[in-house]
Amino acid sequence: MAVPTLPNCARMAALATALALAGCASMAPPYAPPPLPVAAQYPETDSAGAHAPDVAWQAYFADARLQALASNRDIRIAALRVEEARAAYGIQRAEQFPTIALGASGSRARVPGDLSVTGRPMTSAQYQAGLNVSAWELDFWGRVRSLKDSALQTLLASDEARRAVGVALVAQVANGYLGLRELDERVELARATVDSRAESLRIFTRRFEVGSISKLDLTQVETLLSQALSLSAQLEQARAVQAHALAQLVGGPIDLTPVAGEVRRFDDASVLQPLHAGLPSALLTQRPDLVAAEHQLRAAQANIGAARAAFFPTISLTAAYGTASAELSGLFDSGSGAWNFAPRLVLPIFDAGRLRANMELAEVRRDVAVANYEKSVQGAFREVADALSNRRWLALQVDIGKTTLAAQSERARLAKLRYDNGAAPYLEVLDAQRDLLTVEQQLVQTRRALLSSQVSLYAALGGGAPATSAAASTH
């Protein structure tokens, strides 16, 4: 069987196709990142410490009980959003290339005599087989390319959004864990207070029985014990709720049993390491939410290019190349080669302003993306500034709290001594011990707040997520 040769016009169509693929250019406006709408420096600066993005969260939060994040549903949803955007990008990217299909068709028709040219009934048949290209747009003006670029930027933005979810989740889990450790220490203090006051009640009950103290003194000791028991029950309840919330965050049960050698009282030096904030401009590449906002801005820019290209003629090709015959048995005989080539050009003349409105819509959406980007930058700047300020002033509050605790402990000791020597009523001891318990609880809360400020700073600086994008391989 002879192989049919490609006609000259088909060769020219192939040449036009190659030129179209090589010569199409985007009509999107050139991208220029908006200037940072924030100060060049943070209000609070600190040159000591590591950069947050350089410290993996597994190293920053070394406790193995904080490493179970894979089961969290928010992480899973964000990952699926990335896969959704990846599939949408694949669909749009495929629009740049022709769809070539192998097709075969056959038909038979009978024409009655009164409709036939010869006046006699006629039966005809036609069979075809070959390769078909249907309505492939030659992207001279870059419309399809701009839509592909927009889909790519949306994919990259969704991947950065996944990383942002990871950063937020790491911070939530760390804060939940710190809250649990805080309640553990406060519960321990309350239990120790309950034990001490229970022993005091036993001693005072014995004294009352022998008549060495009044009923009022015994009642005051009972009041102290009741207050400690009430506080202990409240803290136990809060701890149970905090443990349930932490288990939900990590997406499953978490072993909260203290590890061997664990120090019940924890501070900044034993849990987290110092961080260096750097400059606000570094946030643009460190924080995944800001990177995502920039990708959204780039996607909006690409959509403008597609809207502009819609004003120009649309050129599409429909072609087929194969064989045709009036008999199925002769479909692949020599001389049965057949082809058709049908270019189509459409130039918009009147559309009641639809194209103009579509371009204005794309430009407005670009302006919205710019505003969202600037808002995200300002929010990130504030989060870092707040975390730096909190870290500074909470550290000072911890120092003051330690001094206050030492003074209150001495006050309680002296009040007890004065009561034992008959120089003061037991009401003075009652007030001193109540204030001592309050100061102990407040100091634990302040130390936890200091640690939480470190966690907030770590997340605000873009730590807690891998630096590489899972969507980078899609370029």
Rg is 38 Å
Decide which structural class fits the backbone: alpha+beta
Helical run tally: 10
Oligomeric form of this entry? single chain
Mean pLDDT: 81
Low-confidence stretches: 1-13, 18-23, 466-473
State which percent range the strand residues make up. Answer: 5-15%
Helix content: 55-70%
Spatial strand sequence of the major β-sheet? 2-3-5-6
- The rough form would be described as elongated
What is the strand tally?
Answer: 6
State the order of secondary-structure elements, H for helix, E for strand.
HEHHEEHHHEHHEEHH
CA distance, first residue to last residue: 45 Å
* Most strands sheet: 4 strands, antiparallel
Summarize the model shown.
This protein is an alpha+beta fold and 475 residues long. The chain has helices at 8-23, 57-60, 73-94, 143-209, 215-250, 268-271, 283-286, 288-309, 354-420, 426-460, and strands at residues 50-51, 100-111, 122-138, 275-276, 314-325, 337-346.
Descriptive overview:
- The protein has helices spanning 8-23, 57-60, 73-94, 143-209, 215-250, 268-271, 283-286, 288-309, 354-420, 426-460; strands at residues 50-51, 100-111, 122-138, 275-276, 314-325, 337-346.
- The strands form two sheets. Strands 2-3-5-6 form a four-stranded antiparallel sheet, with helices on one face. A two-stranded parallel sheet has the order 1-4.
- It is built from ten helices and six strands, in the order H-E-H-H-E-E-H-H-H-E-H-H-E-E-H-H.
- The longest helix is centred in the middle third of the chain and has 67 residues, at 143-209.
- It has 475 residues and is α+β, with helices and mostly antiparallel strands.
- Helix 4 packs antiparallel against helix 5 and helix 8 (288-309) packs antiparallel against helix 9 (354-420).
